[in-house]
UniProtKB/TrEMBL annotation:
Its EC number is 4.2.1.2. It holds the Pfam family Fumerase. The keyword ATP-binding does not apply. InterPro entries: Class-I_Fumarase/Tartrate_DH (IPR051208), Fe-S_hydro-lyase_TtdA-typ_cat (IPR004646). It is an enzyme of class 4 (lyase). Residues 11-274 form the Fe-S hydro-lyase tartrate dehydratase alpha-type catalytic domain. One of its GO terms (molecular function) is fumarate hydratase activity. Keywords: 4Fe-4S, Iron, Iron-sulfur, Lyase, Metal-binding. The keyword Metal-binding applies. PANTHER family: FUMARATE HYDRATASE-RELATED, L(+)-TARTRATE DEHYDRATASE SUBUNIT ALPHA-RELATED. Belongs to the class-I fumarase family. This is Fumarate hydratase.
Length: 279
């Protein structure tokens, strides 16, 4: 049994949040450079260049890379041999987020859904936990902006719609979104499970590095087919038309009921801010 004080978790997430607020993932930066160099449409190519300049400046100046500094999403895989001591886990996570958003001068965007009164410190965070084998804690932190989150959708497909239905749902979601989620987008897809679990699968898919493929060949084929069709839409960077509308499509899957085929599509803008650490 390994004892971990939740204060250690708080301090680690605090550092992750500060870093994520001002810099993109390495795979996202690489994909944006490739998109800029590969785009042929003038306005879209210019916009991609501006996006690259923006993340370079934000990182060098330690300033927020986007004005929407997001709602904190924290996903943790906690080893079953870990014994947590100290403050409750959610309290530690929210303390980390509260401190990071104050110290980083990040916009505080969390509010009551009915009254719209701001909580004032960007808490509570969205926290997902899984119990896994081992004595470590894997932490993934994503500050999720809502210009793209609002473009996400859930489809409860008929099983007979199969792979074609899945691909069509992914492409339709991006097409309907158009320029609103600040493309080129990253698309996280959850296939299977239930109404609620497929959405979490989609969020986890977003956390995967761009350029990686699902280990299942048939799921990887869905990723490729969907990406090709999305980039054939011609929406382009910021809606200026062009051949790069999405930087990647990542799919995750889970077994589902014989009568259903849930599919969740979680849209992420070009500004992918994700940090992963192991404690």
């Amino acid at each position: 049994m390994r004892k971990i004080d939740t204060k250690e978790i708080e301090e680690l997430i605090y550092k992750m949040a500060l870093d994520a607020g001002v810099s993109l993932t390495d795979s996202c930066k690489k994909a944006l450079y490739a998109a800029r160099d590969g785009e042929t449409e003038g306005a879209a190519k210019f916009a991609l260049g501006a996006l690259c300049d923006n993340f370079e400046l934000a990182e060098s100046k330690k300033m927020p890379v986007c004005q929407d500094t997001g709602m904190a999403v924290v996903m943790m895989e906690i080893g079953q041999e870990v014994f947590l001591e100290g403050a409750p886990l959610a309290e530690a996570v929210n303390s980390a987020v509260r401190r990071a958003y104050a110290d980083g001068y990040f916009r505080k965007s969390v509010c009551d859904p009915i009254t719209r009164k701001n909580t004032g410190d960007n808490t509570p965070a969205v926290i997902h936990t899984d119990i896994v084998t081992g004595d470590k804690i894997n932490i993934t932190y994503i500050p999720k902006g809502f210009g793209s989150e609002n473009m996400s959708r859930v489809y409860m497909l008929k099983p007979a719609q199969g792979v074609e239905g899945i691909v069509d749902a992914i492409v339709e979601t991006v097409k309907i979104a158009g320029s609103r989620p600040c493309p080129p987008v990253i698309v996280g897809v959850g296939i299977g499970g239930s109404f609620d679990t497929c959405t979490l699968l989609a969020k986890r898919a977003l956390a995967r590095d761009l350029g990686t493929r699902n280990q299942r060949d048939d799921v990887a084929d869905i990723e490729k087919r969907a990406l090709d069709k999305i980039n054939a839409l011609g929406i382009g960077c910021q809606g200026f038309h062009g051949k790069i509308t999405a930087l990647g499509v990542n799919c995750e899957w889970a077994p589902t009921h014989i009568a259903g085929l849930p599919v969740a599509i979680n849209i992420q803008c070009h500004c992918m801010r994700c940090r992963k650490e192991v404690l």
